[in-house]
Design brief:
Elements lengths: L4 E4 L4 E4 L7 E6 L10 H19 L3 E8 L15 H9 L3 H18 L7 E4 L4 H13 L3 E4 L2 E4 L15 H8 L13 E6 L23 E3 L1 H12 L6 E5 L3 H16 L6 E5 L2 E3 L3 E2 L10 H4 L7 H9 L7 E3 L1 H19 L10 H11 L5 H12 L5 H15 L3 H5 L3 H15 L3 H13 L2 E6 L3 E6 L3
Parallel strand pairs: 3-4, 3-10, 4-5, 10-11, 12-14
Antiparallel strand pairs: 1-2, 6-7, 7-8, 8-9, 12-13, 15-16
Helix pairs in contact: 2-3, 4-6, 4-7, 6-7, 9-10, 11-12, 12-13, 15-16
The structure holds adenosine monophosphate and zinc ion (ZN).
Length: 467
């Protein structure tokens, strides 16, 4: 099999992937902040991460995938200013912050399922890991990386020599970006909060009525957002810190700070590979964001309009994860037509499977192993389906590819045995020229929710009516 190469944001180049342990991969993906529904942009990133995970598995690796749920500490401002997003939603919806977290976590899990995104091996919530986060701050304090201000404990970024190694931006530029939100007590514009005190808010937000707060050696408060991902990845992926992912908006602040605090606390390299997905934009290149009015959810934009969620997955597959993707109704119509066409092509292969074709498998692997080139892999799928291989060989091969694509192709051929039996009886009736019986059997098949289509050589395909 060809080597798997992945584009590493750390080196800004494609690298041959080598895990720390032979056949095991530790994968950490930053999860949702559960104060609202995930939007299609967020979901694009989770589809990309799912493809990565499936490609790793296809290459024979056992993947331990950890995803966090941010249920505390993510403030409305990037640089430790503003209000906790969970507490703000709780007030807006007149619920407790805990209820908000639970409600949107469940909604998020439903979205993942609808998009055929495989669940992580470990789900972990920030609020369940307060002691781990406090311990990390203590380790940093002991090594002299922290200082106190009136509103919290801060990380001193000037103590880290390679603070910009992920962003590759001159420090002055990072500081410029950070300075937008002023905090006069910070020593450096890029410094960030590890622990924020309850009831103290430099920008007069309503931090004093917090529902989520804990005791700590520094005072009652809550952890800074970046801290949870460090604490939980170090806990669950000890000894296999291979790949860490997120959207590109996380490079300059969130992931940069995760690296700074983790490496300062442990003295060891934090993850080896950092992969970032490009944005889903809307109307003229504007990023889809929860803070903007342009945010579309899977429920409202897709499911409520009778579009299959997997059409959105297909649309994501058709654009390389490092290229911006533009959302539009035309784009979705195009993806819907392509997916329907694929479903028909696969259904028309009948139900018999033979061997996986080695040549096409190799072509497919070359694409997916070239930094997840799924658009090219979809082209190989078409090349396969239009080739002169036998239908049974095509079927075996395309179903094998679907372990990576995740487009639900197996559903097309997993027809209940009783329906297959009816179809076989109908075939016999047709051979016997008993047309009345053949029609009667078609009626039974349709009543069971399947459409039967005749193929050459007395063969047939069966398609579930809702497919
Ligand atoms: P959040 O819930 O805001 O923490 O974001 C969850 C994930 O979605 C993160 O990995 C973000 O980088 C990613 N993300 C946010 N906006 C977009 C977008 N418009 N397109 C793609 N990914 C996004
Ligand atoms: Zn994170």
């Amino acid at each position: 099999m060809s080597d798997l190469s992945l584009y590493n944001t750390l080196s800004r180049s494609k690298e041959i992937f080598k895990p720390i342990n032979d056949d095991q991969v530790g994968l950490y993906t930053c999860g949702p902040t559960v104060y609202n529904y995930a939007h299609l942009g967020n979901l694009r990133t989770y589809v990309f991460e799912d493809l990565l995970k499936r490609v790793l598995a296809y290459n024979g690796y056992k993947v331990k995938h950890v995803m966090n749920i941010t249920d505390v500490g993510h403030l409305t401002g990037d640089m430790d200013m503003g209000e906790d997003k969970l507490e703000l939603s709780a007030r807006r919806e007149a619920k407790s912050a805990w209820e908000i977290a639970e409600f949107y976590t469940e909604a998020f899990k439903r979205d993942l399922m609808a998009l055929n995104i495989t669940e992580p091996s470990v789900w972990c919530k920030a609020t369940d890991h307060i002691s781990e986060q406090v311990a990390l701050i203590s380790a940093l304090e002991e090594k002299g990386f922290t200082y106190l201000t009136s509103d919290g404990v801060y990380f001193d970024t000037s103590k880290v020599t390679d603070y910009n190694k992920l962003s590759h931006l001159p420090l002055a530029e990072l500081k410029e970006g950070a300075r937008v939100e002023k905090n006069a007590e910070k020593k450096n514009a890029t410094d960030f909060a590890l622990w924020k005190f309850s009831g103290v808010s430099l920008d007069k937000s309503e931090n004093s009525q917090r529902q989520m707060e804990w005791d700590s050696p520094w005072g009652v408060g809550f952890p800074g957002w970046h801290l949870e991902c460090s604490a939980m990845s170090l806990k669950y992926l000890t000894g296999s810190l291979d790949i860490h992912c997120g959207g590109i908006d996380h490079i300059n602040i969130h992931h940069t700070n995760e690296i700074a605090q983790s490496e300062s606390a442990t003295g060891l390299k934090f993850f080896n590979y950092w992969l970032h997905g490009a944005f889903l934009n809307i109307a003229g290149g504007k990023k889809m964001a929860k803070s903007e009015d342009n945010f579309l959810t899977l429920d409202k934009a897709i499911i409520a309009r009778n579009i299959k969620p997997l059409v959105y997955r297909y649309a994501c597959l058709a654009v390389h994860y490092r290229k911006p993707m533009e959302y539009s109704e035309e784009m979705m119509t195009g993806a819907s037509n392509s997916l329907e066409h694929l479903y028909h092509q696969v259904s028309d292969l009948g139900l018999d499977k033979s061997e996986i074709n080695a040549l096409f498998r190799e072509k497919f692997v070359v694409c997916i192993n070239d930094d997840l080139n799924l658009p090219q892999a979809l082209a190989i799928v078409q090349e396969l389906l239009k080739s002169d291989l036998s239908p049974s060989e095509k079927l075996a091969t395309v179903l094998d590819f679907d372990q990576v694509l995740g487009l639900g192709l197996d559903q097309l051929v997993n027809v209940p045995q009783e329906v297959v039996d009816l179809a076989n009886s109908r075939r016999q009736a047709k051979i016997d020229k008993d047309w009345a019986r053949a029609d009667e059997l078609r009626g039974y098949i349709e009543a069971k929710g399947y459409q039967i289509k005749d193929l050459p050589s007395d063969n047939f395909s069966l398609i579930a009516k809702d497919k």
